[in-house]
Amino acid sequence: MSTVPPPFPTPQESVGHPELLQLGTALEPDEPCLRADAARNRARLLEAAARLVAERGADAVTMEAVAAEACVGKGTVFRRFGDRTGLLTALLDHSEKKFQAAFLAGPPPLGPGAPPVERLRAFGRAMLRRSADELELQLAAEPGASRRFTAPPRRVLRHHVAMLLRQAVPEADCELLSHTLMGQLDPALIHHLTRQCGIPMARLEDAWVDLVDRVTGTATGG
Amino acid sequence: MSTVPPPFPTPQESVGHPELLQLGTALEPDEPCLRADAARNRARLLEAAARLVAERGADAVTMEAVAAEACVGKGTVFRRFGDRTGLLTALLDHSEKKFQAAFLAGPPPLGPGAPPVERLRAFGRAMLRRSADELELQLAAEPGASRRFTAPPRRVLRHHVAMLLRQAVPEADCELLSHTLMGQLDPALIHHLTRQCGIPMARLEDAWVDLVDRVTGTATGG
């Protein structure tokens, strides 16, 4: 049920992601010191919290509910995360790291080994599916306007998109084009489209694939 | 120096913009009752405030500074706008209406009469230039994540982009594609790129034109 995240990042891939080490440091200040069983316990609690978010929304994630879901005492959850805010922050970091491991070192087409356009398509689909599960959590954690584009997790994702774009369309302004693509995956936009406009997630996935094809000149266009 | 905004909206164009009447109502509750000289006075004060924003930033817009810039007594500004918040709100509304008049009924290529792809290119360039002048003001007025996509001015702009896209690429999911294009013109993104990354506005304009061409299949693509 609960698994320890794969080693992260792989040395080869991190070369293309200058901010990754910095992010890793920011996300797990005390992680390297954890013994293996403590790390497994922590991952188990976070997987339990993630299940609660997916099944009942972010509001359902309380220290008590996570303890019950993971079959441990409440004290264990408090010792590990301090308070609910600490738990939610750790939960997003955990999800972020799992996702990064998947696109940096997981199987293709999300991970290395597939052509860049296929990886871009898979990246957006995976991001959209992740947002479908964690939307409340992502919205609650969204930084203000001045920090929205500089928060480390987003920068790592955008760097990845820019790297794939440079492989697919080297002649384009891939730095700016990566912002365009990331905008389509913005949690606030996904919330608006799915919850406020009632657009099904499948249509968002189709639109993503179409956008990637248009931007990279893979489809016939107009 | 100061001009009364052109009649707005024109009946033909408003057909394609179902939210325009609603927006018009929201923006000018007492406008229809103003006598012509009062309306001219109001426009003159707002043009003075707009000059201050463009020259010295949003912080420079105080009731006193606007009065001095427009060569009227301070009391006139207070009577007309109530307080600084009222003035800034009126200023954004005024700018919004001038811009809407330009793309709905002004000369081509921004206004009607040019092919849709040319109008899209001109629309983004005009939006970027407007943001260069008013960025602080737009950022200060940015609604929270849950309202960012439903605020009336943004909806009118996005509807316009969707309408042009439907003319240019009728086979595409123009509703979702219009969100993609609008994301590129988001004030928070423009702030990040120009102020935090030091990217010149000219490069943003080039990237906009390139994006429009890619999305509509006008350029060679990749």
TrEMBL record, chains A, B:
Protein's recorded name: HTH tetR-type domain-containing protein
Source species of the chain: Streptomyces afghaniensis 772
DNA-binding region: 62-81
One Gene Ontology molecular-function label: transcription cis-regulatory region binding
Keywords: DNA-binding
PANTHER family assigned to the protein according to its UniProt record, in alphabetical order: HTH-TYPE TRANSCRIPTIONAL REGULATOR RUTR, POSSIBLE TRANSCRIPTIONAL REGULATORY PROTEIN (PROBABLY TETR-FAMILY)
Domain of life: Bacteria
Keyword DNA-binding carried by entry: yes
UniProt domain HTH tetR-type: residue ranges: 39-99
InterPro entries: Homeodomain-like_sf, HTH-type_TetR-like_transc_reg, HTH_TetR
SUPFAM superfamilies per record: Homeodomain-like
Gene3D superfamilies: Tetracycline Repressor, domain 2
